[in-house]
């Protein structure tokens, strides 16, 4: 008999029918002898509907404190209804808001971090034989103010709660039946991973894999919570996310991620003198441009070229910031490119296996495609290329690293991100 | 500068436009120099929509605890949006749920009574210059369970909060612009009352006047909170409800109420022996039939007739209960009548003015209408008559007691009852 935290996202409880299906799943788990704590998000479009309401009332961005008061009702509705659905199946259940579950956060609205969990009430209710249903995405400050955790908040609630009650497992139910070696919509022979390490998952999550929120993975890593990502629609085994993940024989790359939200900015003909690079990136930091990969070319005839990537939304802001220091820097030209994509290979074994990056470069150049920027870390290599080449690059890399499988991937509807 | 509690019902905040109008009204009050605490109900049909959702999930009556978790989200949405609407007008506001406002209740779900209010947080927020918006209809038990107060709950929240913070005034905003001498939809010349005493208001509220909930009036009486009932759509002065209300010269009846939810049950030919009446009403109490007026006729030839009134919904249950003790009692016949109405005159001065009841009986009999049952208390007389005669009876009584006025009544939309 295990103590399990189960997390269901908004689309898994999008209407009464889905709510009942989730309840059935929980009751099966309970009747198999497990103690279950369930974390649930707001139903389907509830959050968007509430945001729409607020827009009818307030011109601009409403006060964040009141927005949290408003949005947290969405999860409260979900937990109450899910508890009813479980009662309807003849099992005992009790629903709690974030504050009732003892989830304390920083005094910040809209994206608070969990500071402490006091799980006495949850544990007590479990001991009395209840399924305990906890509202995800929300908490309370020491002063009794209601807060929300921001994007990926319900994942974080689930993981933090699992750590606090020392759960054996934290199951994240979603629309896909696990973590894949790459996006199964692009590569038909993508393989579902049985295991992946926290670090690899973190890289994949940050590099564009949308199934788990990076903050939740970080939390799981820090508290050593074993995560299982699995489908809320099938009984397929999911993917275990844990400290040490076993690599299959001969496989060194665990997964391939991509991110289309990339723009490249290049500053050409920058006269070489100390501190030029610092000036540019100070100017960008001042206007809060999100900078990812940075590359400086070699110096030629006393002048150099810089390139960096940023998000599509920040591109204009970046260009304006650089123009504003043209006199100070004295560069020749600033250019930018969109329609780029960042393709990344991730694998914990890379660091001890020579030639992994070289293989990536060779695969891409064999396709006749040029690499615009490169960035590496201990467990990943990222290349920025033209968007139009994405599919063939990912397919070729997938094959080259021995990831192709013969099984058919299960892909569900739109993914839960809250 | 006064400290004012303002209460707005669900139809007053039924959509974004109404919400904004209410916010404007509050800001005017605040800018006139008053400190304002606002109690608000769930928007329009929100509660019904949530109940519908629960019916899709649960077969039968859902667990009351979870129902309270579900329904209290309605007021939380209202307070957050109303606070935003006030911010949008440039004033400071802060919204609180029931538990955040320190409203403690009994450990009962669906119809808890307020046991204590700890208003430190509300007072603190007021001191900092905020309009404080409190969710009506809800509270928390000592153990941190969320509860609701049942019908008329938001009125009760407002009055109890006014008592706890020693407010100068508790304004109940509604769809009519005060308490009327009778229903202005029936009597065009009904007069709006400037003042009414708690006891009179209690009788009127219990006798069918839907503007204020009896429990709220009782609370106001016990804590001597001055209530003002006024329109949320006009600036007309409302009706003051207080301990001692001044009567106009020559007027002894304050108001005329009616209640159509009346059925008469008669048990005829009951053999006279001790305890017969007790047996009947014990049997009715056992099946929780709500009994109002009870009349026993004189004994004739060793047998008597009993009559009583009950609600339309309880009539069948009452007849069944009586049939079930036919053998024990030995009555000849049991009959029932629907299409009845109870008309009541209310006035604190009645007790010291002879002939008030006699006038009522005479007015009704002069119309050629027979009175089915009569009941009296110190400050009211009720007569049960046939429904079809309601309008002419009320109009005639209104004139006979000198209540007709020449002013036009303002009547709004459907009334708020929560």
UniProtKB/TrEMBL annotation, chains A, B:
- Which Pfam families does the record cross-reference, listed alphabetically? AA_kinase (PF00696), ACT (PF01842), ACT_9 (PF22468)
- Hey, which pathway is this one from? Amino-acid biosynthesis; L-lysine biosynthesis via DAP pathway; (S)-tetrahydrodipicolinate from L-aspartate: step 1/4; Amino-acid biosynthesis; L-methionine biosynthesis via de novo pathway; L-homoserine from L-aspartate: step 1/3; Amino-acid biosynthesis; L-threonine biosynthesis; L-threonine from L-aspartate: step 1/5
Q: What Gene Ontology molecular-function terms does this entry list?
A: aspartate kinase activity
Instruction: Tell me its EC number(s), please.
Output: 2.7.2.4
In its UniProt entry, the species of origin is given as: Paenibacillus chondroitinus
Similarity comment text for this entry: Belongs to the aspartokinase family.
Q: Where is the ACT domain?
A: 265-348
The record's keywords, sorted A to Z, are:
Amino-acid biosynthesis, ATP-binding, Diaminopimelate biosynthesis, Kinase, Lysine biosynthesis, Nucleotide-binding, Transferase
Relate the protein's function as given in its record: Catalyzes the phosphorylation of the beta-carboxyl group of aspartic acid with ATP to yield 4-phospho-L-aspartate, which is involved in the branched biosynthetic pathway leading to the biosynthesis of amino acids threonine, isoleucine and methionine.
Q: Which Gene3D superfamilies match?
A: Acetylglutamate kinase-like (3.40.1160.10), VC0802-like (3.30.2130.10)
What are the coiled-coil residue ranges? none
**Family annotation (PANTHER family):** ASPARTATE KINASE (PTHR21499), ASPARTOKINASE 2 (PTHR21499:SF68)
Annotated catalysed reactions:
L-aspartate + ATP = 4-phospho-L-aspartate + ADP
Protein's name in the database: Aspartokinase
């Amino acid at each position: 008999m295990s103590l399990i935290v189960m997390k269901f996202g908004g689309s898994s409880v999008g209407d009464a029918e889905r709510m009942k299906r989730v309840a059935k799943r929980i009751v099966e788990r309970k009747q198999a002898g497990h103690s279950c704590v369930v974390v649930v998000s707001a139903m389907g479009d509830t959050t968007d509907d509430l945001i729409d309401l607020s827009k009818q009332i307030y011109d601009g961005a409403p006060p964040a404190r009141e927005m949290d008061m408003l949005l947290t009702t969405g999860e409260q509705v979900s937990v109450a209804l899910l508890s009813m659905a479980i009662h309807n199946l003849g099992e005992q259940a009790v629903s709690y808001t974030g504050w009732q579950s003892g989830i304390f956060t920083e005094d910040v609205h809209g994206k608070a971090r969990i500071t402490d969990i006091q799980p006495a009430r949850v544990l007590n209710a479990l001991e009395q034989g209840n399924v305990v249903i906890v509202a995800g995405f929300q908490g309370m400050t020491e002063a009794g103010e209601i807060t929300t955790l921001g994007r990926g908040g319900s994942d974080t609630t689930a993981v933090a709660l699992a750590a606090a009650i020392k759960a054996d497992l934290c199951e994240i139910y979603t629309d896909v039946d696990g973590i894949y070696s790459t996006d199964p919509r692009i590569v038909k022979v993508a393989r579902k991973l049985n295991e992946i390490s926290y670090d690899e998952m973190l890289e994949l999550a940050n590099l564009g894999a949308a199934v788990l929120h990076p903050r939740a993975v970080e939390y799981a890593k820090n508290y050593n919570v074993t995560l299982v990502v699995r489908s809320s629609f099938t009984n397929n085994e999911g993917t275990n996310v844990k400290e040490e993940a076993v690599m299959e024989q001969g496989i060194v790359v665990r997964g391939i991620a991509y991110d289309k939200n990339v723009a490249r900015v290049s500053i050409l003909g920058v006269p070489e003198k100390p501190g030029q690079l610092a000036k540019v990136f100070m100017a960008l930091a001042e206007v809060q441009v999100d900078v990812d990969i940075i590359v400086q070319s070699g110096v030629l005839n006393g002048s150099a070229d810089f390139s960096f990537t940023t998000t599509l939304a920040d591109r204009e802001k970046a260009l304006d910031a650089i123009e504003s220091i043209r006199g100070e820097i004295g560069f020749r030209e600033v250019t930018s490119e969109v329609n780029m994509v960042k393709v990344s290979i991730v694998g914990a074994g890379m660091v001890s296996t020579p030639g992994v990056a070289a293989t990536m470069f060779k695969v891409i150049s064999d396709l006749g495609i040029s690499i615009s920027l490169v960035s590496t870390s201990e467990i990943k290599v990222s290349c920025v290329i033209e968007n139009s080449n994405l599919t063939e690059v990912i397919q070729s890399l997938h094959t080259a690293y021995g990831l192709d499988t013969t099984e058919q991937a299960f892909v569900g509807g739109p993914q839960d991100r809250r």
